[in-house]
Automatic annotation (TrEMBL):
It comes from Ilex paraguariensis (yerba mate). PROSITE patterns: FE2OG_OXY. PANTHER family: OXOGLUTARATE/IRON-DEPENDENT DIOXYGENASE. GO terms for biological process: defense response to oomycetes. This is Fe2OG dioxygenase domain-containing protein.
Amino acid sequence: MEKLISIRSNIQTVPESYVLPPDRRPGKQDVPLCKTIPVIDLKGEHAHDKAELIQKIIKASQEFGFFQVINHGVPEELMRNALMVGAEFFDMPAEEKASFYSEDPKKSCRLYTSIDYVREKVHFWRDTFRHPCHPLEDHVKDWPEKPARYREVVGSYAVEVRKLGMWLLDLICEGIGLKPGYLGSGLSQVQLMALNHYPPCPDPSLTLGLPKHSDVNLITLLNQGEVNGLQVLKDERWLAVEPVTNVFVVNIGHMLQIISNGKLRSADHRVVTNTSVARTTVASFIFPSSDSLVEPARPLTNKGSPPRYKAFICKDFVSTYIADTHEGKPPLERYELDP
Ligand code: OGA
Ligand code: NI
């Protein structure tokens, strides 16, 4: 438990084990605030007809691997409450959280700092509390009883986010030439929620909250709150994703890139820290069930457009993703097929 960064109170300097080698440091850079990742209005007065909506989502998913949605149907208050209850969880005394702390990646409801803490050369300035949420009734009993409203808030939030996620997956299906529902059932059976917590850091130029990565799953819906920190790599340059109230930041994961046979792309992103305030975010990840066969969608492949990736079982992909990421290797490479 002492490995958690949030437990080490009152850190005045960045400990040696968190200092990145100079070429991987974010530095004292001035990353431009990005106003270009499209904010797409799903249901509000600027909402578009369905065809235009789909076209915007697909274009952003191809160009950035990221888009943002507004008027998405998840109530404002629930978005705020999920962030608050997440912050309250991390603010509780250590003994209240101790039963969730685990170094076993197989533990389903788990508080930890880095997937790879023991093996990684440098640590990152983030703690996370992660658990499955779908179907709710199978999981809610394993969630914390404190803060008192945790189960109620996170439960309602997870259900609403799932509706939005499934809707977006259907729009994406339609946009790339798959029937709505293609990504339903097994391919989107699992929903994980991660409460990410990035405490203030004495020197954000030396360390990262999360290193450069692309998400492994299908899509991620991030409620990033009001504090800056997320950056997206576009054309070799980092762009800061400016927080916008009541927006979900949505990104394409590796497995959707593969299912779309490369029509959509997952994009690298990272998190920087700041000196003044703790940043808590709520990330919802939609995954295939662990035994699902994942492959480029058959309706998208034919002689003229052969599969660009090998088929795999979801859980095996997650294992090689973790191993390759540790080695600094691009995790999709071993699944690529020659054209
Ligand atoms: C993640 C992630 C971004 C954030 O959890 O995979 O990229 O801002 N989080 O917390
Ligand atoms: Ni991510």
